[in-house]
């Protein structure tokens, strides 16, 4: 049996981060299913915050408004081609991208991931990271597939209930505690200083292996085999 640790630096509004997560999920599933003895391997995933700050406004704005601004240099045909390409890449890993909805700050969403990390340690002494991984998946789905505003408190209450079984008041209490916000801000700033190529970034076995971007499933699997054969 091998223990494979994966630290993921990402932001929820990052489409490639969601695609990278799904590719990683598939690679882990295939490794456990196909590699001899791989089913016994333990994969521990830890999520870390990064602020892309796509929206400079202090309040949420329509995604399409920002798209019109950021893609103004492209012709309508080029924009349509880009959207179609992203839709196709998403569908290949089971993602149905929704380009509607609003974009706001991801600070509170990252705070929910932090809360799920703490709950992981309370509920699972093996520290598998399953709760925080489920939280990240739910937030990605809400933003990219369901066109929900993940800076909206009601949306975060719903996700906190679904993933952690928390009451709305418990989610509010956590999000109202600025110590948690400062903790996320500090880590996000530290990650921004360390990551020069953008996100996602996957650090495997500490910093032994680093994967930048949403690499192919086969790239992750090759690393898993390398780790397995070195144990």
Q: What this model shows, in words?
A:
It comes from Aspergillus steynii IBT 23096. Residues 5-222 form the DSBA-like thioredoxin domain. This is Thioredoxin-like protein. This protein is of the alpha+beta class and 231 residues long. It has one domain (3-230): Glutaredoxin (3-Layer(aba) Sandwich), CATH 3.40.30. Helix content is 56%, strand content 12%. The protein has helices at residues 15-34, 63-70, 76-92, 107-123, 130-145, 153-164, 168-176, 178-194, 217-230, and strands spanning 3-10, 42-49, 61-62, 102-103, 201-204, 209-212. The chain has a 4-stranded mixed β-sheet with strand order 2-1-5-6. Strands 3-4 form a two-stranded antiparallel ribbon. The relative contact order is 0.20.
Summarize the structure.
Residues 5-222 form the DSBA-like thioredoxin domain. By secondary structure, this protein is an alpha+beta fold. The protein has helices at residues 15-34, 63-70, 76-92, 107-123, 130-145, 153-164, 168-176, 178-194, 217-230; strands at residues 3-10, 42-49, 61-62, 102-103, 201-204, 209-212.
């Amino acid at each position: 049996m091998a223990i494979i640790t994966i630290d993921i630096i990402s932001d929820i509004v990052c489409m490639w981060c969601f695609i990278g997560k799904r590719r990683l999920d598939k690679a882990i599933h295939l490794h456990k299913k196909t590699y001899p003895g791989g089913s016994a391997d333990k994969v521990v995933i830890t999520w870390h915050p990064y602020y892309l700050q796509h929206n400079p406004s202090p309040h949420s704005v329509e995604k399409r408004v920002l798209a019109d601004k950021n893609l103004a240099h492209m012709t309508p045909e080029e924009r349509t081609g880009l959207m179609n390409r992203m839709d196709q890449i998403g569908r290949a890993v089971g993602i149905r991208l929704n380009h509607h909805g609003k974009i706001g700050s991801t600070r509170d969403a990252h705070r929910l991931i932090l809360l799920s990390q703490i709950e992981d340690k309370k509920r699972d002494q093996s520290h598998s990271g399953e709760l925080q991984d489920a939280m990240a998946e739910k937030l990605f789905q809400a933003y990219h597939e369901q066109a929900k505003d993940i800076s909206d408190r009601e949306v975060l209450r719903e996700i906190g209930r679904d993933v952690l079984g928390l009451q709305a008041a418990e989610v509010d209490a956590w999000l109202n505690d600025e110590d948690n916000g400062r903790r996320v801000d500090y880590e996000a700033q530290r990650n921004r200083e360390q990551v020069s190529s953008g996100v996602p970034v996957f650090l495997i076995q500490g910093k032994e292996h680093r994967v930048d971007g949403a690499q192919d499933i086969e790239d992750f699997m090759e690393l898993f085999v390398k780790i397995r054969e070195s144990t």
